[in-house]
């Protein structure tokens, strides 16, 4: 049985993930052939259908793109493009594009292409009310995204114990899970109890920016790689909050959760306006009545804000291990807690060693040191090892001990005297080598509360010492940077100097110092605004952009920058007013012409957008960004031959730009402008 027959067989057996995987593999072999058979077309169709059924967004998008590129409208292959199947395929392609666009895996032009194809089919005819309604809904979501309104979904977990918080709703900014809001409610149930005798259970509800299949995966699974399920990822997010809780308030009685604690996981997908799009329930393995830990702990409100904030999901490795150690300590599992604490100590020393070495541009040297390599290949240890082997083979690397790392850290930070002695003393107390030996040789069976408390006390003192060094530590390089006198320099000199600093936090601090000494340098303030936008601090960036606009009211650069911000916020009319004002000041400002053309296209004023793009290109025929954007507009309005010319021009001007080249390849594959 060959690969194609396997696809048919697996599909018939409803093994859809395996069908998709083989379909993706088939693309590689088909891509090398000049002639594609009807059987191969049908196999790809089966893989597409399987990806649809499993909500494998990324695989589906890849398969459908290939399907479009090989399909000939005049062929005798089935299904025909005007069939129910093609209509359904195109609708799910829009859903896949929405998901992948929000995940940052495709750009807006690919979402626009998917939407345009479906839009054309919807206006032609209606095939099956259910499929048609689905198509209309995904087109609406795509249009909302065009207007800056993104879909979201919610996930609820009912925990087998209560979280130590008052009922609350917390809004969050950027984090690894894309969670925008966390809602926590704790209720009392009369039908269940616990070892602690109370009956309180928390429900944690996450609101997430994104588009999920609702019944399987958060990320939109691919058959070729293992993805975490919604259940796994939200358990991970909840455990991040639990770890933060124990780090802030180490007296509460709590533990991490796993799949066995979760009974059900309701997931609801909404469009950007809050209308329900789809919903499902994932059944877990747990049951509330099976809870083994239950206590209605409370964290003070002032401490609660330290846990539930934008950094809720950003603990360091050593902090994660420390949280686990504290949880075991709270459950009187002293021996596991002791060894976890020591693991956290080693991770913390390495964390600060790398952190401090980066301030001296010693990061590569330190990484080599931590890997155990020697910078001196001619030392006696190396030569003796080679002589004994009778070869040129080098002595194998040996990772440095904790105390060797402490010594290296002391040299980097110039830690001397009593501070160095304290550091070594506290490390020895945490490690407690005598107790370790007794445990290994069976002279002690467990670790006493006193010994464990002593280790934790010493760990906290080390941590405080590192934090003190970190907050007050200024490297010799940073010291020389401080000697740069901001008061007697131009904006250009200051910006050039700050841009030469490697550390982002240091750059931020230097910008603020420079602006404090030169509050009327609008170029400097605008540069800081751009720095904030580029580093994910949009709200502060807007504030400083407005300050620069106040100081230089008729600056077309600043007006254009603020208009771009408004476009990103979906405030198109206000943005247009600013761009018109900016272009009155400088009618030949190429960036503003291009940005205004983009805005007009978003407003579906395509003729005006075309005219504006052409005007900008006449002024600067080598402006690759405007040329590329104009090509995308031409695709949008169906002028494929013209689009081909301008895509080619953009790629020629900037051949290293992967976005340009990838979009051009996709354009050639799907639209075949020369045919």
UniProtKB/TrEMBL annotation:
Protein name: Uncharacterized protein
TPR repeats: 624-657
InterPro entries, alphabetized: TPR-like_helical_dom_sf, TPR_rpt, Ycf3/AcsC/BcsC/TPR_MFPF
Organism: Vibrio ouci
Pfam families found in the cross-reference section: TPR_19
Record has Translocase as a keyword: no
Keywords, ordered alphabetically: Repeat, TPR repeat
SUPFAM superfamilies named among the record's database cross-references: TPR-like
């Amino acid at each position: 049985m060959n690969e194609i027959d396997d696809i048919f067989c697996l599909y018939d057996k409803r093994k859809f993930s395996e069908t998709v995987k083989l379909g993706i593999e088939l693309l590689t072999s088909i891509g090398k052939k000049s002639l594609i058979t009807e059987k191969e077309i049908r196999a790809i169709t089966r893989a597409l259908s399987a990806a649809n059924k499993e909500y494998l967004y990324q695989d589906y998008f890849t398969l459908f793109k290939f399907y479009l590129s090989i399909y000939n409208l005049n062929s005798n292959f089935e299904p025909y493009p005007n069939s129910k199947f093609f209509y359904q395929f195109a609708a799910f392609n829009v859903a896949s594009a929405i998901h992948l666009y929000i995940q940052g895996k495709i750009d807006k032009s690919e979402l626009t292409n998917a939407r345009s194809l479906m839009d054309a089919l919807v206006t032609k005819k209606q095939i099956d009310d259910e499929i048609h309604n689905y198509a209309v809904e995904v087109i609406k979501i795509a249009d909302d995204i065009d207007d800056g309104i993104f879909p979201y979904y919610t996930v609820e977990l009912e925990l087998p114990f209560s979280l130590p918080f008052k009922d609350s709703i917390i809004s969050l900014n950027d984090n690894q899970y894309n969670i925008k809001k966390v809602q926590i409610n704790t209720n009392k149930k009369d039908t269940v109890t616990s070892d602690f005798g109370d009956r309180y259970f928390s429900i944690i509800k996450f609101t997430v920016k994104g588009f999920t299949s609702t019944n399987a995966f958060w990320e939109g699974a691919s058959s070729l790689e293992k993805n975490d399920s919604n259940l796994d990822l939200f358990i991970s997010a909840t455990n991040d909050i639990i770890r933060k809780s124990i780090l802030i308030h180490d007296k509460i009685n709590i533990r991490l959760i796993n799949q066995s604690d979760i009974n059900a996981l309701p997931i609801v997908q909404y469009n950007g306006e809050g209308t329900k799009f789809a919903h499902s329930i994932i059944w877990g393995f747990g049951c509330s009545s099976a809870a083994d830990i239950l206590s209605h702990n409370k964290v003070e409100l002032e401490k609660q804000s330290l846990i539930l904030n934008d950094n809720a999901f950003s603990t360091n490795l050593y902090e994660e291990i420390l949280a686990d150690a504290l949880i075991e300590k709270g459950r009187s599992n002293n021996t596991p807690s002791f060894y976890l604490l020591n693991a956290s100590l080693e991770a913390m020393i390495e964390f600060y060693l790398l952190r401090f070495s980066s301030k001296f541009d010693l990061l590569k040297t330190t990484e080599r040191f931590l890997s155990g390599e020697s910078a001196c290949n001619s030392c006696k240890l190396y030569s003796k090892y080679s002589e004994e082997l009778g070869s040129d083979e080098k002595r194998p690397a040996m990772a440095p001990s904790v105390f060797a790392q402490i010594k290296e850290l002391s040299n980097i930070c110039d830690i001397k005297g009593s501070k160095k002695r304290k550091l070594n003393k506290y490390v020895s107390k945490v490690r407690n080598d005598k107790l370790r030996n007794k445990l290994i040789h069976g002279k002690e069976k467990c670790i006493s509360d006193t010994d464990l408390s002593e280790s934790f006390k010493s760990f906290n003192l080390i941590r405080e010492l590192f934090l003190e060094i970190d907050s007050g530590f200024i490297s010799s390089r940073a010291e020389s940077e401080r000697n740069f006198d901001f008061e007697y320099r131009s904006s250009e000199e200051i910006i050039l100097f700050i841009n030469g600093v490697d550390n982002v936090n240091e750059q931020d601090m230097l910008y603020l110092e420079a602006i404090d000494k030169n509050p009327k340098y609008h170029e400097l303030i605008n540069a800081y605004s751009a720095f904030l936008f580029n580093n994910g601090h949009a709200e502060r960036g807007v504030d400083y952009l407005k300050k620069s606009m106040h100081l230089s009211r008729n600056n077309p650069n600043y007006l254009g920058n603020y208009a771009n911000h408004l476009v990103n916020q979906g405030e198109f009319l206000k943005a247009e007013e600013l761009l018109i004002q900016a272009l009155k000041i400088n009618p030949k400002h190429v960036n503003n012409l291009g940005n205004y053309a983009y805005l007009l296209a978003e407003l579906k004023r395509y003729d005006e957008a075309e005219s504006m793009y052409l005007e900008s290109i006449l002024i600067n025929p080598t402006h690759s960004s405007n040329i590329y954007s104009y090509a995308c507009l031409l695709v949008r309005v169906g002028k494929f031959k013209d689009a081909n010319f301008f895509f080619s021009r953009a790629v020629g001007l900037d051949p290293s730009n992967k976005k340009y080249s990838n979009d051009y390849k996709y354009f050639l594959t799907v639209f075949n402008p020369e045919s």
